[in-house]
Design a protein that fits this description.
This protein is of the alpha/beta class. It has one domain: Rossmann fold. It has ten helices and seven strands. The chain has a seven-stranded mixed beta sheet, with helices on both faces. α2 crosses α4 and α4 packs parallel to α5. It is globular and about 45 Å long.
Length: about 230
């Protein structure tokens, strides 16, 4: 695939140490901050756990609301259900369905071997706790929690995806994308958390640049540590 010059320019600006977050329209910080104030405080970060910021949470909900009617969202990395809950708030406007993949508190010895050390496995939320949180906000069967690892779940996957949210093991963001990309619909959005060298993790930022620098993508967006883009139709 060819390298998109406009996409390369986006990354040069977004990843620059001197990138002016106020003036360049591509990052729209005032808009993101307003969204965070209005819609990013619905759920308690201290109660749920997780690392998403209020601006990121609000935009997750906004993007989820833009999927097609009865669309499908796949979330890689659920943890305590914070991002899942915001995704549900948006997807519910389109009767969308969310599939959230995480090993939760199962097989912690294996998780310890695979961990990227980004979050502690001590007292990691279990699937039943997350399920109860989702039930409290009325998610019901619109959110399906899948206990397992993304690279294993994808082997039996057979559904087209309208929004892929990657927030799992930081050592394999690129591999997660490559595994799930064959299921993306035209016009699907992909968002990657911790994908900015200043606000996230350099390895994930490098992976995001590899993914989104091609001319396959448009409408690139940068919200704090999130890099997102829409697949061309």
């Amino acid at each position: 695939m060819a390298i998109g010059s406009s996409n390369s320019t986006f990354f040069e600006r977004a990843y620059s140490d001197r990138s002016p977050k106020v003036w360049y329209g591509f990052s729209r910080p005032i808009y993101h901050n307003l969204m965070g104030l209005l819609f990013g405080h619905r759920f308690s970060k201290s109660q749920y756990g997780g690392m998403i910021r209020h601006t990121e949470a609000a935009m997750l909900s906004r993007w989820a609301s833009e999927i097609p009617r009865d669309g499908c969202i796949v979330e890689i990395g659920c943890y305590g259900g914070l991002s899942t809950s915001y995704l549900y708030l948006g997807a519910s406007k389109k009767n969308g369905r969310i599939f959230s993949i995480d090993p939760f508190d199962s097989d912690l010895e294996k998780q310890e071997d695979l961990t990227d050390q980004a979050v502690s496995l001590d007292q990691k939320p279990g699937m039943q706790l997350v399920r109860s949180r989702l039930d409290e906000i009325g998610a019901g069967d619109k959110v399906e929690l899948i206990e397992g690892y993304s690279q294993e779940v994808v082997k039996n996957w057979d559904r087209k995806i309208d929004f892929l949210w990657i927030d799992g093991n930081h050592d394999q963001a690129l591999q997660d994308y490559l595994d799930w990309a064959p299921f993306l619909n035209p016009g699907a959005r992909v968002g990657i958390h911790d994908a900015h060298p200043r606000y996230g993790i350099q390895l994930v930022a490098d992976d995001a640049r590899k993914i989104f620098s091609t001319d396959e993508w448009e409408r690139l967006d940068h919200v704090k540590s999130i890099i997102a883009g829409t697949r061309k139709t």
